[in-house]
Amino acid sequence: MPPSAGVTEPRGTASCACRRESYVGTWLPEPLLTSPDVAEDVELADSVSTAMLLVLETLAPTERAVFVLREVFGLGYEEIAEAVDKSPAAVRQIAHRARTHVAARRPRGAVSPSETRSALDAFRRAVETGDLQSLLDVLAPDVVLLGDGGGVRQAVPRPVVGADKVGRLLVAGLGGSTAASLRPVQVNGRPALVLRLDGAIDTVVTVRVDDGLITGLYAVRNPGKLSYMQRETALRR
């Protein structure tokens, strides 16, 4: 189930003024502030999660369009063929290829909001207190940290891999800071954290959780992508 479900436009996939091809640094989807009830619809929440949006971005544009039109909106192959200027037979092949691609890369199983919140609470406490060991306890050994500053704000220039590297980086940057505050919110249908510096939104952190441990950390700092954190975005199927 892809990310455009019920969103007026698929902002998360390409709404930044700069397309991924010319984007400076790591590209991450825009964080959308969502209401808590979105998390209750597990399938919808999964479809708009940061991890799933990143999977969708690995599809070619036509594959992504076919996948969304077929899997989200339930259009027939004839209608899709007309929309993408392909034959129905070609659309069937594209749809099959896209489904296979997504199935192979989508996050493993649905993680409950309570499990994600539990991991995030432990993560927040460890970062705020600068407790490296507690942070390592909630990070998976092969955790990956991605940062998106869009060339405007400083962010990690490439993925940081491994609990020790990620933990030490976070503790050095945020541990014990009195100017920084981490607050829980709902982003893209999932529990997340907003980092504020002196009261202003600085970073939105979403996570991927597997087996109770954080396996992916996605930190968006690009100011151009934080505008949708000012008000809730209505998501529906």
UniProtKB/TrEMBL annotation:
Q: Which CDD domains match?
A: Sigma70_r4 (cd06171)
Q: Where is the RNA polymerase sigma factor 70 region 4 type domain?
A: 52-101
Q: Which GO terms describe its biological process?
A: DNA-templated transcription initiation
Keyword entries, A-Z: Sigma factor, Transcription, Transcription regulation
Superkingdom to which the source organism belongs: Bacteria
Cell membrane is among the record's keywords: no
The terms under GO molecular function for this entry are: DNA binding; sigma factor activity
Transcription regulation among keywords: yes
Q: Which InterPro entries is this protein grouped with?
A: ECF_Sigma-70_Domain, NTF2-like_dom_sf, RNA_pol_sigma70_r4_t2, RNA_pol_sigma_r3/r4-like, WH-like_DNA-bd_sf
Stored PANTHER family: ECF RNA POLYMERASE SIGMA FACTOR SIGJ, SIGMA 19 FACTOR
Which family does the UniProt entry place this protein in?
A: Belongs to the sigma-70 factor family. ECF subfamily.
Name of this chain's protein: RNA polymerase sigma factor 70 region 4 type 2 domain-containing protein
Question: What organism does the UniProt record list as the source?
Answer: Streptomyces minutiscleroticus
